[in-house]
Amino acid sequence: MEKTLWYKDAVVYQIYPRSFCDSNGDGIGDIQGIISKLDYIKDLGVNAVWLSPIYKSPNDDNGYDISDYRDIMDEFGTLDDFKEMVKGMHDRGIKLIMDLVVNHTSDEHKWFQESRKSKDNPYRDYYIWRKGRGKNGKKTPNNWMSNFVGPAWKYDELTGEYYLHLFSEKQPDLNWENPKVRQEVADICNYWFELGVDGFRCDVITYISKVYDKNGNLPNGSLLKDAPLMGKHNYCMGPRYHEFMHELNQKAFGKWDSMTVGESQGITFKDAFNSIDESVQELDSVFSFEHVTTPDSILMVFPKKFNLVKFKKILSNWQTLPLTSQPTLFLENHDQPRSWPRFVGYCQENKEYAAKMLLVAMQMQRGTPYVYQGQEIGMTNMVLKDDEYKDIMARRIFGIMKKVCPPLMPIARKAMAKRARDHARTPMQWNDSENAGFSTATPWMYINPNYKQINVKASEEDPNSILNFYKKFIAFRKGKEIIIKGSYIPYYEKSKDLFVYQRKLQNKSYFVVCNFKNKEIKFKVPQGLVCKTSSIAISNYDEINTLTLQNYTLKPFEATVFEIEE
Ligand code: GLC
Ligand code: CA
């Protein structure tokens, strides 16, 4: 099938199904709930949806632990619901990107159930089993740590060996060295392509190829350099990563007019370049996470202030990818805290301007933009008590801290208040009725009490809402050649207040001026900028201080795009 590269001009809306809309009153979002909101999604102007996992799962990690890749989680509905949803999307010109979680399965997947039975079970080699170290084999096979804290190995008494799990104990890692595993993954992709899916977001895909020594053992990592979440470790972008991805592309992705995006922790710019250029036929794009670590440290316990200079530097670097590679543009997802006030500081009075400014700052860049459910109405983090966190990550951090070092609990509490994944997972706020219109029953996760003010209905009624600006901006962005393929020229890179850049195609360009501060800032037209005529293309202020590009005073959180001709 010919590749139309439709994603080059797509805006993707991410749905976290558990928290989106509950249709049958059990407190859990579901597929029929999504179907009931398809017109809302279309109205936003997006042309693709990335759906977090909806496959069968015991929900140790909310669907990121899959026990059957070819069926739908009972709580979410049936395959027939799924087909109805795909049709509903396609009828509205919306593509569907499914989550592909194949670094690991659930321990309740039948492959793993078989695998643990005996050392000679045909499925044994689907996973990574190793003997323990030390005299009586009581030490884990190596020192790798799980991304959810604690050792990455679990001892299984049945066969007296350990299995590797880079996430929870209920998420055993698949052994990608085994060609049968790779074939299974390709078959799963094609199964969903045949059902109409348009692409995949590939979960922690940079972890699939592990480093082995010449005896087939997995070597220790150095604790500092190889600690999880630090970027580079012995299971990130291992030696066979490119080979595995190319094979999957040949067997599945490349056979369809699809779009793929890798969740690519620890990927470097160079790695990315080598894996998403159209010529290499692996993935179409990757999420890298460098820029979302600028507001808070990855280790979470050391709070720091958002660093705009660093943030711009990272994003500007990704903009230097050639036109044959597609960057991704995002601030939020189901693992990240809400973007306000994370990237702008607390600013209740001008919050709407800040949220709109962030949209312009991100989406005037080249790449495929992502909007995470609720971002378009300015949903925020929630204040939770220790026992109100539902996510496995927060629960494990609190659990271990309480046991190992109770005096450090306040630090953990502070870190989770800022950084927990729960913040993005509170139910979508549809209106100001009970349970925010998300469900008629008590929802599985707490609703942010600010739903009385922040909700879709109120946003639709307010012409100046964040939501209405999202619609206006997304419509503006669509089909604009300069945005899709214009060059990117940064200005004032050292400014701690402004994010300024130009997008240029021949003699026409957009000049983007974003004020990241909640105060007026003087703006000066950069020296040497060639500009014969200019006018305002779009701004988050209806009444700004100028009609053309010139020196002027920017309003708090102003984002204005000038169209200029040389
Ligand atoms: C990805 C997902 C996250 C999940 C993890 C393990 O990082 O985004 O939600 O917990 O992979 O599958
Ligand atoms: Ca439901």
Description:
The protein has 566 residues and is an alpha/beta fold. 25% of the residues lie in helices and 16% in strands. It contains 15 helices and 20 strands. Strands 11-10-9-5-2-1-13-12 form an eight-stranded parallel sheet, covered by helices on one side. Helix 5 runs parallel beside helix 6, helix 10 runs parallel beside helix 14 and helix 11 runs antiparallel to helix 12. The longest helix is centred in the first third of the chain and has 16 residues. Bound molecules: alpha-D-glucopyranose (GLC) and calcium ion. Alpha-D-glucopyranose (GLC) binds next to loops.
List the helices and strands and how they pair.
Elements: E1 12-15, H1 31-36, H2 38-44, E2 48-51, E3 55-56, E4 68-72, H3 79-91, E5 95-100, H4 110-115, E6 129-130, E7 153-156, E8 161-164, H5 179-194, E9 199-202, H6 241-251, E10 259-263, H7 269-276, E11 285-287, H8 308-318, E12 328-329, H9 339-342, H10 351-363, E13 368-372, H11 392-404, H12 409-419, H13 456-461, H14 466-477, H15 481-485, E14 487-491, E15 498-505, E16 508-515, E17 521-523, E18 533-539, E19 552-554, E20 559-565
Helix pairs in contact: 5-6, 10-14, 11-12
The structure holds alpha-D-glucopyranose (GLC) and calcium ion.
Calcium ion binds at residues 22-24, 26, 28, 30.
